[in-house]
Amino acid sequence: MTRVTDPRNGRVRLSTEGLPAWLDPVARVARTIAPGDLSRFLPPADGAGRQAAVLVLFGDGERGPELLLMERSAALRSHAGQPAFPGGTLDPEDGDPLADGPLAAALREAEEETGLDPDGVQLFGVLPKLYIPVSGFVVTPVLGWWRTPSPVGAVDPNETARVFTVPVADLTDPANRTTTFHPSGHRGPAFLVESAVVWGFTAGIIDRLLHYAGWERPWDRDKQVPLDWRS
Fold it and tell me: Are β-strands 224-226 and 177-181 bridged in parallel, bridged antiparallel, or unpaired?
């Protein structure tokens, strides 16, 4: 078992012990980034919003560092067909939303959606909580190191169309970077990888991680891809 737990209560905890050196910049980002550096959409001051968590899982693939993503089912009423990090809302058994609840939720949701073995994951940091106005979620991005890879795939086709990994080298390749614009007026960074357009909340997290970790390469910010109302 490589998942780090507190021997006093068995709860999941964070640890940077034994991380590969290439993850050091990401761990540093988790320690130093300010909420406003990550997004302009921050949790409401009155505490409103549904608590959720996503797992930003880094692994070491055939082409070097990679990220785990999933594509939501086209049959879903919200975010249909959209690539995303595994994740979802906190359940009562996950624990305190202001303590280790998001850690437990990120691992549980990833296992339920992708079949990931959580015992092979070492959680090493969290990013500031962010707000998704369209859905009212307050989301904690949880950073993980896929120390012991396990088979993954779509557990429920009604919710997940596919599960895939993306090499960080492809995410930093200027040829795969673009800006999306939505009829609502939303504009944001996006990535053209693995036959998918990664945009929205997920792309925003990846974009800021690449930037503050020092991995970003110059890219053409005038290159644009349109989205439709169904996105």
Answer: parallel
